Amino acid sequence: MWQSETVRQSLNSHTFSPYKDRWTKRLMRYGVESRGVQPVPEAQRTDTQFIKVFYFWVSFNVNILTFSTGTLGPAIFGLGLRDSCLSILFFNIICCGPPAYLATWGPKLGMRQMVISRYSFGYYGVIVLCIVNLIGLIGFSVLNCILGGQALASAGNGSLSWTVGIVVIAVISLFVSFCGYRVLNWYEKASWFPVLLTFIISLGVGGKHLLHPPPAEPATVVGVLSFGATLAGFSISFSSLSADFTNYYVSSVNGWRIFWYSFIGLLIPIVILECFGAAVVIAVPSVPSWEQGYAGGNIGGLLAAMLQPVGGFGKFLAVLLSLSVAGNIAASFYSLTLNSQTFIPALIIIPRYVFSVVATAIVIPLSIVGAHTFYDALANFLGLIGYWPGSYVAIVMLEHLVFRHNNPGEYDINVWDMPRKLPSGIAALGAMVASFGLAVPCIRQVWFTGAIAKTTGDIGFEVAFGMSAILYLPFRWLEIRIQKRV
């Protein structure tokens, strides 16, 4: 039917020689997913447990990295609690929408997110996106490993080093991502609840210190927009992997159902935990034990100090908090494996789970090296990573809504791996690159301030999105006229 011969062969587990290997066959019998970037045929899109996508996003974000992101408003950008929380709420309402919407494409097309992107950026042009996305996925995994390692070490009262903690967290994440879709969904469905209880207990124990925050300086437009760009870097970055986790759902599912499950699963934990992080870091100077735990920007130590009043049980809760990042890292590793195969198509013959091992080998040493400069790494990374997804979202959404008329049937899935039958990608890459000509002067972060941003604050994300949308329409129209196909 819709599959090309290449796709049909790649979907057959007996086609590629690696799948004939006895070890691989044994892993598959144990439920390890072998499928990589190959589209899931409609007959194999059979999952009807749609609520899993809600649990997935909740587990992805109920962790100490989300908490840490909220601390940046007061700690880096000088905002008070009210202004930090309002920024967190409104920027996330905007930035959680695109990844939730893109998640609805998975059931309709059966393709991974970066493969779908070939229908606007082209077979070779999407390689540029994959490189940037791989950097982002590795960066988020490194930050999570550092946080998890710090929290685990703090729970051990010095008997465990940050390095050992980082390795433990990475290995647990490796196991989950190695197994693939089924185990990943099972883990994400179960892991968020005890972590949420731990945050609730920490709020119950330390909440009295949060009741009377010190007066803050009036918020400036520059501070709000700069913090907003950082928040966007956290939330909208999920857009580049949204469909990776929904392409096994039956194609008949109502798109609004997937959207609302995803949107609420993203928005609620992000807003609550980021606001909690902002409130706690503002209270740190007034609580000596918190200040001691937080020394050097140690978020794990801060949370462990908050749980000290419950004694030995608090150490157990600190361990749970350290493990909270595993769900985020495992999902990032999972998408990272798929990006690797899209980045270098020849790697499609290598089973997906092999890349999880490679990702772990990369992330562990980077986490160990960056562990003692976490706050700088967090602020710089989130400040940088949010700009390209804004441009990406504008382009792929216009491609879908305008040029393919919001109709999944206008994606010829037969040509997913045929460069000459896909768009050239020049229009998409041209719009993205050209948009940064104006976006870069609009960036204001701790590491760079553009000429325009000195007056306006950081509007780089908004400009990248708007300019990409404006430029892509004529560029893509011209590309279609020249190629004589969509």
TrEMBL record:
Gene3D superfamilies: Hydantoin permease. One of its GO terms (cellular component) is plasma membrane. It holds the Pfam family Transp_cyt_pur. It is a multi-pass membrane protein. One of its GO terms (molecular function) is transmembrane transporter activity. Coiled coil: none annotated. The keyword Transport applies. The chain crosses the membrane at residues 54-77, 84-103, 123-147, 159-184, 190-207, 219-238, 258-281, 293-310, 316-338, 350-375, 381-403, 424-447. Keywords: Membrane, Transmembrane, Transmembrane helix, Transport. It is found in: Membrane. It comes from the Eukaryota. PANTHER family: PURINE-CYTOSINE PERMEASE FCY2-RELATED (PTHR31806), PURINE-CYTOSINE PERMEASE FCY21 (PTHR31806:SF5). Belongs to the purine-cytosine permease (2.A.39) family. This is Purine-cytosine permease. It comes from Laccaria amethystina LaAM-08-1.
